[in-house]
Amino acid sequence: MTDRSSAMVRPEWRAATSYIDGLAVPGTASEQVLDPATGGRIGTVQLGDAAMVDDAVVAAGAAFPSWRDLGPSERGRMILDATDVVEADVGELAATVGLEVGKVRREAFGDVAGALALLRGFVGLVEELSNGEDRTGQPGTGQATAVRIRHVPVGPVGVIGPWNTPVFLTFNGIAPALASGCTVVVKPPVEAPLALTAVLRALAERLPAGVLNIVQGRGSVVGQRIAEHPGIRAVMFTGSTATGRSIAAAGAATIKKVALELGGNDPAIVLADAAITPELIAELVAGAFSMSGQICFNIKRVYVHISRRDELVDGLRAALSRVVVGDPLDPASQMGPLTTRDGYENALRLLRSARDAGARVEELGVRSPSAQWEAGNYVRPTLVTDVPADHELVLDEQFAPILPVIAFDDEDAAVAEANRTEFGLASSVWSADLAHAERIARRIEAGNTFVNAHRLGASVPLVPFGGVKQSGVGRTHGIHSLHHCTEEHAIVAFDDARAQLPGLDPWLETDEEVAR
Questions:
Q1: Residue 12 has what DSSP assignment?
Q2: DSSP run (H or E) holding 149
Q3: CB hemisphere CA count around 6 (13 angstroms)
Q4: Residue 5: predicted pLDDT
């Protein structure tokens, strides 16, 4: 095992601690943060407990009125000033997140830079929302003199971040919450807390005490307490379906708003009229194997018309054979290791099971000499064909660089297979006929369906993002995230309610009139 932290991670970032009400708080226990490329130690996380969550919620509750009342312009100025400070460290932060997650450089840079872009974007967007809506005189407002609808922040928001894209996806909740006027209690992932905590601390130290609080710890302890705490008015979570169920149940006890972006098993349907070009092959490879297959809406299964099967499989095989798998810090690497040892062991188990079921399993890619293959969690990009349609690799989320390809001869059957699972995050249809592709897309049960794309960037910021069935509830992105962090407050005014609203006269009768 190799310890690379001394060369790659700033000393002050190597211990992820809690930060509550403007103060660093030591944990009740500590745990090592491991480098998935070598198995070596790169830092520690000091684990908190439920009592620390209680303290953080008290701090967030106390800070909320003044943060809310600053208004969007002053809040935005403070957020942008803090963001500018973090910007200077993007390169080092990206190197740190690459080290702890196993991301190659371009992916790690996008993780950090994308989070800062979210902060800036929501600061601008919340100005629009803060103007409210004037519906005076519109149908359905009766004779009311004035009808206005405001969007007011809900209060303290809990954000529970995932380990696969720890900075960006955690800020997918933090950015709209802060910008809209909510205070935040955030739980970083224990598997990859270092870079995220460094960003959070840099921001929290430049905002009023209690506005942004960090509690490190296990989901079963810290995450559970955040979800059930009556002082938390909304929760935003990205992670597994199993954990999402626990959060939904915990949040129900206090009727809080819950947005859950959960697991996915995204299908891609390649129709008979699709042009199997190098660009299409590259799109499928990028959509399935980015971040070593560890993205919630990666392509996780491909259904291809039988007339195009061989052409598609040959193209994927050739493209995957060129993918360089190596140390994520090596500029030549296109794919790094899996982040967790459990994920690595599960990937190997799935491949053994597929072979035992009679599938053809082709482990491809170029093994870079930069990788410590025996020590790291490396799985090469793998193409699986002739796999039974009901195999676990097809029906469940593998979260690994493994792609099953299944032929179909009937479009109705392909749609039925795409909809067969309890997942419904994203999906895609590939065709030269956009109208035909959209007709197929309308029949797929998913929160998003893309046509001729299915990778990072395809879910554009304007559209809502989230899942159906057991892939989640609620929607994020843009105005949809702000709606989750705010409540609608209607103000309806009358000049003369007696004249404008019927039904008051019986209550104005005198005792003498009642007696008669």
A1: G
A2: strand 146-153
A3: 2
A4: 59
**Per-residue model confidence as pLDDT tens digits over 369-422:** 999 999 999 999 999 999 999 999 999 999 999 999 999 999 999 999 999 999
Give buried/exposed letters for 91-108 (b at 16+ CB in 10 A, else e).
ebbbbbbbbbbbbbbebb
Instruction: Report how far residue 440's alpha carbon sits from residue 442's, in angstroms, rounded to the nearest whole number.
Output: 5
| C-alpha span between 445 and 435 (Å, rounded) | 18
Rounded Cα–Cα distance for residues 404 and 388 (Å): 10
Name the catalytic one among 31, 191, 261, 417.
Answer: 261
**What proportion of the chain, given as a percentage, has pLDDT over 70?**
97
Catalytic, out of 228, 296, 411, 485: 296
Asked if 126 and 180 count as a contact pair (C-beta separation under 8 A), the reply is yes
Spatial CA neighbour of 431 closest among 283, 314, 222: 283
What is the pLDDT at residue 131?
84
Q: Residue 515: its pLDDT value, please?
A: 54
Q: Which pLDDT score is estimated for 2?
A: 53
* Strands of the sheet with 486-493, listed across from one edge: 133-134, 146-153, 486-493
Distance of CA 66 to the CA centre of its chain: 29
pLDDT, one tens digit per residue, over 431-475 is: 999 999 999 999 999 999 999 999 999 998 889 999 999 999 999
Going from the C-alpha of 314 to that of each of 122, 298, 354, 383, 455, the distances in angstroms are: 44, 21, 20, 10, 21
* Distance separating alpha carbons of residues 138 and 469, to the nearest angstrom: 36
**Global model pTM greater than 0.90:** yes
* Spatial CA neighbour of 272 closest among 311, 319, 320, 316: 311
Contact 368, 330 (CB under 8 A): yes
Residues 6 or more apart whose Cβ sits within 8 Å of residue 361: 351, 354, 355, 382, 383, 384
Residues 35, 99 contacting (CB under 8 angstroms): yes
Is 296 marked active-site? yes
The pLDDT value given to residue 1: 47
Given a cut of 70, the residues of the chain with pLDDT beneath it are: 1-7, 510-516
Q: How many CB atoms lie within 10 A of CB 278?
A: 10
Tokens of 395: 């029906």
To which residue do tokens 């197929």 refer? 440
Q: Are strands 23-25 and 29-34 parallel, antiparallel or unpaired?
A: unpaired
Question: Sign of torsion, CA 325 327 332 336?
Answer: positive
CA distance 400 to 370: 21
Helix (H) or strand (E) holding 61: helix 50-69
Would residue 422 show up in a list of annotated catalytic residues for this protein? no
Decide: 262 and 470 in contact? Cβ < 8 Å. Answer: yes
